[in-house]
Design goal:
By secondary structure, the chain is α+β, with helices and mostly antiparallel strands. It is about 30% helix and about 40% strand. It is built from two helices and nine strands. It has helices at about 5-30, 125-130; strands at about 35-40, 45-50, 55-65, 65-70, 75, 85, 90, 100-110, 115-120. The longest helix is centred in the first third of the chain and has 29 residues, at about 5-30. The protein is elongated. The termini are far apart. The structure holds 2-acetamido-2-deoxy-beta-D-glucopyranose (3 copies). One 2-acetamido-2-deoxy-beta-D-glucopyranose (NAG) binds next to helix 2. One 2-acetamido-2-deoxy-beta-D-glucopyranose binds near residues 123, 124 and 127.
């Protein structure tokens, strides 16, 4: 005769053991994967023509997953109808003179942080800067 309560106990213990093992290996995996936060932006300077759309690719590494914030000249960058920040792109549609500025991407988690700045300039100001260099 089958002893139902006993086989049920064994089943419950087996299920609990599997859950505990899975949980432990998940935690080990998780702690192994601590990755320092790193922000990469495609270029330190973006040279644009006023009126065109601008796409700046960027990437953020890190574990635990860092939070990411963009700043324009040190002030929180506001998403608006022309400015959109996605997971890997800063997009400014129909650029105008107000968009020429320093944009900083900051990312941080509990363990580390990083930031990278991109300067948006026009071809004209790029040429002026070069002319200003005594060389
Ligand atoms: C640029 O566009 C914004 C609206 O997105 C406007 O508020 C601002 O005055 C414009 N700046 C210039 C210099 O045209
Ligand atoms: C990351 O930060 C947490 C919380 O401050 C800390 O417990 C942990 O030891 C840190 N890990 C590393 C690798 O710095
Ligand atoms: C800037 O200089 C480049 C060559 O260095 C030239 O082709 C371009 O026309 C110049 N642009 C302006 C706006 O002066």
């Amino acid at each position: 005769m089958i002893d139902y309560p006993n086989s049920l106990n064994i089943l419950v213990m087996a299920v609990l053991a599997i859950i505990l093992l899975a949980d432990e290996s998940w935690q080990q995996d998780h702690s192994k994967k601590i990755i320092p936060v790193r922000v990469k932006v495609s270029l330190p300077t973006a040279i644009i023509s006023i009126g065109t759309d601008l796409l700046i690719p960027y990437s953020v590494e890190g574990n635990p997953i860092p939070s990411v914030t963009w700043y324009k000249d040190g002030h929180l960058l506001q998403d608006n109808e022309r400015t959109i920040v996605t997971e890997n792109l800063l997009i400014i549609f129909r650029t105008n003179a107000s968009d020429l500025d320093y944009y900083t991407c900051k990312a941080s988690n509990l363990n580390s942080s990083d930031e990278t700045t991109v300067n948006i300039i026009t071809m004209e100001s790029a040429n002026n800067t070069n002319m200003g260099n005594p060389r």
